[in-house]
Design goal:
The chain is about 80% helix and about 0% strand. The protein is an all-alpha fold and about 100 residues long.
Amino acid sequence: MSNITRLDEDEIFNYTELTPSKGRMAKEAMDSYLETLGTISSEGFGAKDDSSAHKVIDSLIREVSTISATMEDVDSMIDSLIEIINNDILLKENRISESVLED
């Protein structure tokens, strides 16, 4: 991830939080994908199947589960960062600009 070099105020002011909307939708999609992978693993291979394809599916299940478990925390962190940028940088900058112009 690189440094922030430019802020688009409109994007910040019009930001829709991830946690209640897009984040939830992404988590539901990830959970659905995990369910599909689980079905493939349990129904697509025999119980004693130790093929590399079965191992890859099971490994993918573990990796996707890890990502899915952290998605909510990441969404919340991004929402918090945008709120900080909005309140502590942009709005404060606007208040300072207005007070300087008043003087």
